[in-house]
Amino acid sequence: MQDSTNAATTAVDIETVRKQLFNAVRNYPEAQHYFAEHIDNAEVLALLFDISLGDYPDSVRMKSCSYIAEYPAEMLQDYEEDLLDLQSEKWEWVSDHAIKALAKIKSPRALKYLVEQRIMPKLKLEGEALSHHLADLLADLP
Q1: pLDDT tens digits, residue range 117-142?
Q2: Is residue 69 part of a domain?
Q3: Long-range contacts, stretch 89-96, CB < 8 angstroms, 24+ apart
């Protein structure tokens, strides 16, 4: 078994990330630890986007998007276009996480989509996403 205490020694390549995602779908603690240890790793984030946008099983794409949404906003900024593509995904387990990530970066195009395409017809995780979009405005209210 790999030493999971040191992220620097853990492989960062498409095959490792894909395998860890399969294991994360099965709730293996080692996989969850792998992604927690790499939450600030730009290479892993890029690979998660490759998988989310690629031809992989839906469960793996969904898990990939869920990890993407956990990354800090400053790391997600460069992926706005990819996130906008993912938010339109028909499978909500993928699009919901993209919406959450877009809210972190306060994307104006995502806000328009969120209100017109998701909130107007129904409510779900959109409330959490909208709170990210409006966080600055709400903080200024008495």
Answers
A1: 777 666 656 666 766 776 675 455 43
A2: yes
A3: 91/58, 91/61, 91/62, 92/124, 93/58, 93/62, 93/65, 94/52, 94/58, 94/61, 94/62, 94/65, 96/65, 96/124, 96/125
